[in-house]
Design goal:
Elements: E1 6-11, H1 31-43, E2 48-51, H2 60-70, E3 75-80, H3 87-101, E4 106-109, H4 126-145, E5 149-152, E6 157-161, E7 178-181, H5 185-194, E8 197-201, H6 205-221, E9 230-240, H7 243-259, H8 274-281, E10 288-289, E11 293-294, E12 309-313, H9 314-327, E13 329-335, H10 339-349
Helix pairs in contact: 1-2, 1-10, 3-4, 4-5, 5-6
């Protein structure tokens, strides 16, 4: 067990109430409510939070900036989508917030489906989409680490570009980490050469072991010129005082999902990406895989990180997280609802077992 693993939470950032069954706050997306959550993360051991994104939700970067201004250690993991942002515009915005916050910015580069036409973007096939993402990540990093950058790519161009201010340098951290997800072959090629952290959803251990080994092999074959790729897990964790209570509550939640009375669970309505399909396919292998990976939510609308859950006592879930850690995963993004209740419960019960 190392002390290097980091634990983040999740902020849905959704104007619609009832996200994943969280109906506790009528003003669920007000700045005061979200600030209360972010401050609770600071008080209960979380490094920060992934902020949900997609057209039809509030702008992720604006929300991250507001929460940074109202907190002291909270680190937002901010989604950036090539096409929604141009690389130079994003590099400047992110480094400004990073400098103002003393190095608290993290970035999640998103390439999955979205309502592109709604903000004037278009994409070609999968190969074109990931070629554009690769250029975006390479250029943003160059703008953060070099001056007078000239870049003439197939998708993006800049000439004599210097981003001011520079990112906050803290120890060996030269710029915000670039997180990335995606399970297709095209996505893995981008991750292997451009990402700092590859994020996985909650698959069984054996599946992630294979993916990690494949990405390491790809990194070597593609002559990665960055520090070694790191790995992260984004998953729902349902924690209760006892194993029995956790499973009773998990099964009750799924029963409500089956009735259609559990709020909005599906964040990925625009199409089924390869990674999402991998999770949905798990239901054919059984409702519970490994020790306590619950796949049943995927049958009733659970999407993204809500498709599979780790269920159990704090000790049960910590044991499972340690097994992922043993595979080489060192970044964890956890969540459950009600969000504020679970920030506190899992921060006080689960996180101490992971130190």
């Amino acid at each position: 067990m190392t002390n290097q693993s980091e634990f983040l939470w999740y902020i849905p950032n959704d104007v619609k109430a009832g996200h994943r069954g969280d109906v506790t706050a009528p003003d669920h997306n007000s700045l005061d409510t979200l600030t209360t959550q972010a401050k609770a993360m600071e008080e209960h051991g979380w490094k920060g939070a992934l902020i949900g994104t997609g057209w039809g939700r509030p702008d992720t970067f604006t929300l991250a900036t507001a929460l940074v201004a109202r907190t002291t250690t909270f680190e937002p993991l901010i989604a950036a989508r090539p096409g929604y942002w141009k690389p130079a515009n994003f590099a400047s915005a992110a480094t400004t917030l990073d400098q103002l916050s003393g190095g608290r910015v993290r970035v999640n580069v998103v390439s999955g489906p979205d309502a592109l036409a709604a903000y004037g973007d278009t994409e070609g096939d999968q190969a074109q989409r990931y070629a554009r993402t690769k250029e975006f990540m390479r250029l943003v990093r160059r703008l953060w680490t070099e001056e007078d950058v000239t870049f003439d790519g197939d998708h993006f161009q800049v000439s004599g570009s210097t981003v001011v201010p520079r990112p906050a340098q803290i120890g060996d951290r030269l710029h915000p980490k670039l997180y990335f997800g995606g399970a297709s072959e095209a996505a893995e090629q981008v991750a292997a050469t451009e990402a700092d952290v590859q994020l996985f959803w909650g698959e069984p251990l054996e599946g992630l072991r294979e993916r990690i080994e494949r990405l390491k092999t790809l990194s070597a074959r593609l002559d990665r010129d960055l520090p070694p790729l790191e790995f992260g897990l984004r998953i729902t964790t349902l924690v209760r005082d006892t194993t029995e209570q956790a499973w009773a509550d998990a099964e009750a939640k799924v029963a409500k999902m089956a009735e259609g009375s559990a709020g909005s669970w599906q964040d990925h309505r625009h199409g089924i990406a390869v990674g999402q399909k991998r999770l949905l396919d798990l239901t054919g292998r059984g409702d519970v895989l490994d020790d306590n990976l619950y796949t049943a939510p995927g049958k009733f609308g659970g999407g993204g990180a809500g498709t599979t859950w780790l269920v159990g006592s704090a000790e049960d879930v910590a044991r499972s997280l340690r097994k992922y850690e043993a595979l080489g995963i060192s970044h964890f993004v956890l969540s459950d609802t009600p969000y504020l209740t679970e920030i506190k419960r899992q921060g006080s019960k689960l996180l101490p077992l992971m130190i």
